[in-house]
Amino acid sequence: MYRKGQGVSQDYITAHVWTNIAAVNGSEMAPELRNAIAKEMTPAQIHAAQKRAKDCVAKNYKDC
User: Fold this and answer.
1) Which one of 3, 8, 23, 46 has the fewest beta carbons within 10 angstroms of its own beta carbon?
2) How much is the pTM?
3) Cα–Cα distance measured from residue 25 to residue 44, given in angstroms and rounded to the nearest whole number
4) Could you tell me if 47 and 17 are in contact, meaning their C-beta atoms sit under 8 angstroms apart?
5) Which sequence spans correspond to the domains of the chain?
6) What is the DSSP secondary structure assignment for residue 42, as one 8-state letter?
7) Is 20 exposed, middle or buried (0-12, 13-18, 19+ CB in 10 A)?
């Protein structure tokens, strides 16, 4: 939804965060989707998304 802005504002970073978390938690299709999203992002955006995902997990998904 965040990747395409369906029902929410388009936000590649948030899309990457949640697909990254899904991939880490065992989703089989998440890595492919995360990589497709990353192709639409700058290296700085990818770095920000990775940091945000790590922080989100560390906070037990609060305030993500």
Assistant:
1) 8
2) 0.89
3) 24
4) no
5) 12-58
6) -
7) buried
